[in-house]
Amino acid sequence: MNRVQLKNKNLYLPVLILILLVLLAVLPAYLSVYHILLLCHIFMYIILTVSWVIFSGPTGYISLASAAFFGVGVYTAAMLGYALSLPLVILSAGLISVLLALLVGAITLRLKGIYFTIFTFGLVQLLAHSLLWWEINILGIRGRFVVVVDHYTIYYTVFTIFVVLMLTAYLIRRSRYGLALRSIGEYEEAAAHMGVNVTMLKIVAFAVSAFFMGTIGAIMATNWTYVDPFIAFNPTISFMPVLMAIFGGMGQLYGPIIGATVFTYLEEILITRLPHLYMLIFGAAMIAAILYLPGGLVGLIEKWREKARSSPCFFKKKQKRGAEKRDVNA
What we know:
Blueprint: H1 3-10, H2 12-26, H3 33-59, H4 66-80, H5 86-108, H6 114-139, E1 144-145, H7 151-174, H8 176-193, H9 198-221, E2 226-227, H10 229-232, H11 236-248, H12 254-273, H13 278-292, H14 296-310, H15 312-329
Antiparallel strand pairs: 1-2
Helix pairs in contact: 3-7, 3-8, 3-9, 3-11, 3-12, 4-5, 4-6, 4-9, 4-11, 5-9, 7-8, 7-9, 8-9, 11-12
């Protein structure tokens, strides 16, 4: 094995990712409207799940505020869709979600454990009921109509948000900032004693997570004709990313993607074919995953890899590759 072969081997993963992205980019040209919208739905939950993992994964703070930021994005699209272009609406939704996250984070991220979790879920209910009261008692309406966008525009916008999110998550994970976040999750007091500004780091991570949740809420709202506070701030949006992240595993970036993809597709099949048994089967699958896959699908994959590495055949191949590398370096 020469230097060129070693270099090509290290390029396999980036090339594979690039090919996959190109396939996803051209896929809508060969799919029906139903399948395009199904892909959009899958991407929506992937974005929500990965966004949730950016903050909650390394820090260990379980946030249930996903529906709050998603709902802010939905209502931003409903209120500004007729006045601004789609890119400005999406950017506005993300920025408003960031402002909300900064405010909530500054107030609540000194709380720990169950107190923070309960507060974030209470935020969802507070926004939904406050907005409902405002519309009914002040404006004399309930809900709003949304500017509808064609499915190709929705797909490519969602796809763009997905690519930007994955790049952001990768850079955070590989940076000193990501290392500091993981130190908070391991032992927050020790991280603070080492000079890490734990409160500021948590607030920033919370805001980055909220930005992508707000943007995906804004673009998905354009697929609906009408929204009201209970549609926009649906509590399911808060719980599903948590379950998907647990099912997929948070040890690697592909874990939340697998978990969100599998669960979203399972949801689509069960709702259309077995609507009365949907929640029963869904709950049973989740319980089984928690009991038998504590590390999620990522943990299962890692166990398989460890078993493969411990096999005699793998050890011999590793010795052979080591000898070839030494020959190349010599």
